[in-house]
Amino acid sequence: MQTMWTLQNSLCQIMKKTVHTLKCKKARYGQYTKTYPVLDGSIPSVCEHVFEENLRNSEACIKRYSELLCKVRKGGGENAILRHTQRNKKLLVRERLRMLLDDESFLELSPFAGFDLPYGDVPAAGCLTGIGKICGVWCVFVANDATVKGGTIYPISVKKQLRAQQIAIQNRLLLVYLVDSGGAFLPLQAELFPDQSHGGRIFYNEAIMSAMKIPQVAVVCGSCTAGGAYVPTMAEETVIVDKIGSLFLAGPPLVKAATGEDISPEDLGGARMHSKVSGCVDHFASSEKAAYECVRNIILTLNYELPPEKTLEYDDPLYSAEELLGLAPQGYRYTLNIKLILSRLVDGSRFQEFKAEYGTTLVTGFAHVEGHLVGIVANNGELTHDASLKGSHFVQLCSQRSIPILFLQNTAPHAAEPTSLSQCGRSFDPNFLFLWPNARVALMDARHMSMFQHAGNDDCTELNHLKEKLDQESSAFYSSARLWDDGIILPQNSRKVLGQCLSIMKQQKYQIVSLQHYPVIRL
Ligand code: COA
Fold first, then answer.
1. Total domains, the chain
2. Is 9 within a domain?
3. In terms of domains, do 256 and 355 share one?
4. Fewer beta carbons within 10 angstroms: which end of the chain, N or C?
């Protein structure tokens, strides 16, 4: 597994009182952090050819990344966009987010989810998810893109929404749903509806999150049928947009088929009906703009006590982030010393290394990223016995001190023992997990497949086919399409993304939590 980034909260949770004490101490600490030793990030001239090889590979990967992103941003395509904006008179999903969020610097999650799946391409899995600020508060959002088959829910859309909810739970972030969905994508209903982690889990989670005091607000900003109708009705507070939003378990054609009654969408489940008669929604908005303003006002009732907005002061790294493209390894044979990467990620290129001389194939130590203190666990070769011991010692230190850990994962492929699971992969529940576009995620390097031939398998065709499959399935894009990670980020943007994640993880300190543990029960 190469160059995978995970961020994990340390195991210990700090009590509020301790937080206060730490905050007071921090003011005094500030002036001392600049004494961590400075890393030498200059690239040795003997490594220039490796740098050049890596650079060429990174450029090719980024080209593919940009092309795919451009395709994904077009959603369901031109005709669907025209139908959405001109016939249905709705705003596009990114325009909605622009109105809802404080600014455009939100962290989008898994934009490549749904790419080239066995059942076809589903741009961004038919819904945008991410984390952005509303009235200064970090919020997770889940926003259907109705240009993709009417916002219907594919199996991958279920997975993406469940992941967004998991992020909200783990980081205690409130969740805003912009719902514009025809419910289940019927041709794949068996793969998205009946099982434990299928569609119903989204509604179940809404109740659980409410009981955990994780607020959830929904906007009905399109035609929401069946599964699309449960999300807003299970949310704690719901806004509906006049003439655009509607909610029903079955739409007018089904009513006609079942009862013979002719009824308009407005009368069956429009904004006025649900705000005046059924009480299913709590706020009537005359336009989309008014609806997003209403959500912002709701957020202001959530009783957060955020610290006064002050920008953290920090030094930039001493070396250019652009050079990370030449340091992002093309393969394990092309890996350079991890400290060259660290020196381009951390504040002032300063790093307080732990056990520098012991188990050197794993680098551990403390640094700051955009002013946030982190423990770093970074592979620097094969994970040996000593390196593993050192890693576990260091993780416990971070846990004792309640310091988030940044894992920089680049585990050597080992012919006999697959090690890619040995760091903080998805199964370890990191708060966030990102890949660089050059990353490869597999139990085994395709080059090691030849050992099976020696073991008596002389069918070259089958082996070559398997190699090809392994190669294709280990690409970062294959991983991200299936939501094995939270997205692909460019090496040069890593510091910004890490800074955002660390700031997001910190917010839970400021949520007012009372002792009651029951959900909001709607009408
Ligand atoms: N499953 C699969 N495909 C669906 C679908 C569903 N539930 N609902 C809509 N689609 C497809 C349409 O076939 C169409 O595909 P196309 O672009 O290849 O022609 C596309 O989504 C857009 O649908 P369309 O009806 O043309 O757009 P619209 O904006 O006028 O309406 C909906 C969108 C979702 C409101 C409307 O299609 C609808 O009410 N669908 C039925 C919803 C339903 O009954 N769901 C029950 C799920 S259990």
1. 2
2. no
3. no
4. C
Q: Are residues 295 and 255 in the same domain?
A: yes
Residues 204, 252 within the same domain = yes
Q: State the pLDDT confidence band at 419, using cuts at 50, 70 and 90.
A: low
- Asked whether the whole model's pTM tops 0.90, one would answer yes
Query: Does residue 414 share a domain with residue 285?
Result: no
**Range in 32-46, 363-377, 445-459, 473-487 with the lowest mean pLDDT:** 445-459
Per-residue pLDDT, averaged over 172-182, amounts to 97
Residue 43 included in any domain? no
pLDDT for residue 424: 84
Give the structural domain span for 169. 73-299
Query: Cα angle vertex 317, ends 312, 319, to 5°?
Result: 160
Mode of pairing for the β-strands spanning 107-109 and 127-134: antiparallel
Residues 413, 266 share a domain: no
Cα–ligand 1 centroid distance for 182 (angstroms) = 6
For residue 177, the surrounding DSSP H or E stretch is: strand 174-179
Answer with the residue of higher pLDDT: 7 or 72.
72
Q: How many CA atoms lie within 13 A of 30 on its CB side?
A: 11
Q: How many CB atoms lie within 10 A of CB 260?
A: 7
Say whether 113 sits in a helix, a strand or coil: coil
**What's the DSSP call for residue 515?**
S
Domain boundary residue among 265, 299, 333?
A: 299
Same domain assignment for residues 326 and 291: no
Last residue of a domain, one of 269, 299, 329: 299
Question: What pLDDT does residue 171 have?
Answer: 95
Partners of 284 in the β-ladder: 240
- 428 φ, ψ (degrees, to nearest 5): -90, 5
Which of 225, 231, 264 for mutating ligand 1's site (highest number of atoms within 8 Å of CB)? Answer: 225
Q: Which atom of ligand 1 is nearest to the CA of 182?
A: 34
Mean per-residue pLDDT for 436-465?
75
Q: How many helices (H) and strands (E) does the chain have?
A: 18, 15
> 351 and 381 in contact (C-beta within 8 Å)?
no
Q: Are residues 294 and 340 in the same domain?
A: no
The reply to whether ligand 1 has any atom less than 6 angstroms from the CB of 247 is: no
Q: In 125-277, which ranges are continuous DSSP H helix?
A: 155-171, 200-211, 227-234, 252-259, 265-269, 271-272
Burial of 67 (0-12, 13-18, 19+ CB in 10 A): exposed
CATH number, domain of 173, equals 3.90.226.10
Identify the helix (H) or strand (E) that includes residue 521. Answer: none
339 shares a domain with 417: yes
